[in-house]
Amino acid sequence: MKEINWASIGSVKEFFALVGEMTVFAFHSFLHAFRKPFEGAEILRQMFLMGYKSLFLISITIFIIGLVITIQLAPKMEDLGAVALVPNMLAVSLIREVGPVLTALVCTGKVGSAIGAEIGSMKITEQIDAMEVSGVDHYKYLVVSRIIALTFTLPLLTIYGFAVGLTGSFLAYNLEREISAPLFMISAFANMNSYDVIPSLVKSLFFGYTIALTGSFFGYKANKGAIGVGEAANATIFYSFLMIFFIDMLAAEITHYLTH
Amino acid sequence: MQEEVVTVKNLSKSYNNDLVWENINFSVRRMENVAILGKSGAGKTQILRAIIGLTKPDKGSVNILGKNIYALKGETLINFRRKIGYLFQSGALYDFMNVKENLLFALERQPIKRSETELRKMIEKALYQVGLTGIEDKTPTELSGGMRKRVALARTIVLLPEIILYDEPTTGLDPITSREINELIIEMRDKLGISSVIVTHDIDCVKMTANRILILDKGTIAEEGTFAELAKSSNTWVRAFLE
């Protein structure tokens, strides 16, 4: 049977083979999650590293996005006589869409690609084989711990991103208009309810799960030396992006269905 | 006569219609070191990987300590593998851990619970056995090739296996370190009763450590015997290989 290069599939048949393989991989890692010993220390270590690695980039990106959207939106809203709505519009768009999606995209670049490269490098240098022959459940140590860590870290980063984005928006809004921080926040959170926040955090959980699963999958599939490591990182970014937007679309539909 | 700890029966493997080996049969007894010799690319490492179940053969079976390794699955396989040590040619040290963490990694995950003092003593003993002390806090990138291999060996023996599979244990080492590693392989057998399968190109290593030698050629075991027996083989290729 011809071996498929998972990093650059070329046909519909290969795409479905990839989906099948990923499903089996996800199921496999799910089964390993319930086996003892639980790698609590490794999960916490990964959560710290993942948060630490992406915090700076998330801060910069979402701060600027909050700032820029406000700078562009406020004059238009002023013309319409609805500038007072800007804080709330920004807050809703940040919590519902911009925050979770942008955080997930940044984490894909910083964390997902690192997972793919790290596991890929370990696969190529026989470190995963070394774990296997010494009686260590490497799926649990490498895959399950990373999946759990990123699944729970991403919603936390999303909340952080929301706060940073709102700060950017406040600064931009305050450049030309006098508004106190408490009043801006009251306006921002006016009309916001659990249907704005909960779907966003649930979506972030799925984003985190998807990014870590994709990174681990392509890391495990890596071969061909250093090239394989690069391909694993690239494939992680490409497929994670695809899946983030697909989940985002699905989440929007489900939220819309549930709230209307 | 000692019991058989490894029994390889009718092992065959091919990749994309290229035959790697066919009908490989051999056994290893307790306290016996068996060396596998052959040209580069003859599939020697693949035999070691097949013994421990990292590579699945097309047909045949491998019985280790009375159990068919291919019939074991999941946690049973994970637990069973703790009885077998494997020294990788590259060492395969975990590069994100220091030496101490490399040795502790599998040890801490064994079902037997040990105190920190016990674990520390086991690590110190294993490192002492391979001639390395005071390097616990170094990372693999700070070690030379020979040191990395010795740490890998310490990581293997610290788990107290009953069988060790050595993939090129002395390749890339200076003659003195090679000799020390060879002496260690013998010590493992004589003092701890560990049986070994050694894949190597190093004739000195074979001479010193192996009770029996298997010569792998064209996918089959061409000759089998002690070093002295094979040195007198009628097969000129075998004799040339051992010179």
Structural account:
- The complex is a heterodimer of chains A (260) and B (243).
- With 260 residues, chain A is mainly alpha-helical.
- Chain A has one domain.
- Helices cover 83% and strands 0% of the residues of chain A.
- Chain A is built from eight helices and no strands.
- Chain A is elongated and about 70 Å long.
- Chain B is α/β, with parallel strands linked by helices and 243 residues long.
- Chain B has one domain: P-loop containing nucleotide triphosphate hydrolases (Rossmann fold), CATH 3.40.50.300.
- Chain B has a six-stranded mixed β-sheet, with helices on both faces. Chain B has a four-stranded antiparallel β-sheet with strand order 2-1-4-5, covered by helices on one side.
- In chain B, helix 3 runs parallel beside helix 5 and helix 6 packs parallel to helix 7.
- The longest helix of chain B is centred in the last third of the chain and has 18 residues.
- Chain B is globular.
- The two termini of chain B are 31 Å apart.
- At the A-B interface, helix 4 of A face helix 2 and strand 6 of B.
Q: What general outline of chain A do the C-alpha atoms trace?
A: elongated
Mean of all residue-level pLDDT scores of chain A: 91
- In total, how many beta strands of chain A? 0
* Overall 3D shape of chain B: globular
Structural domains of chain B: how many: 1
The CATH superfamily of chain B bears the name: P-loop containing nucleotide triphosphate hydrolases
Helix count of chain A, per DSSP?
8
**What composes the largest sheet of chain B?**
6 strands, mixed
Helix content of chain A: over 70%
What is the total domain count of chain A? 1
The amount of beta strand of chain B, in percent, is 25-35%
User: What class would the helix/strand composition of chain B place it in?
Assistant: alpha/beta
Low-confidence stretches of chain A: none
Could you tell me the radius of gyration of chain A in angstroms?
A: 21 Å
Give me the Rg of chain B, rounded.
18 Å
Query: How do the helices and strands follow one another from N- to C-terminus of chain B?
Result: EEEHEEHEHHHEHEHEEHH
The chain pair forming the largest interface, with residue counts per chain, is: A-B, 16 and 26 residues
Figure out the total of helices of chain B: 9
Q: How many DSSP-defined strands of chain B?
A: 10
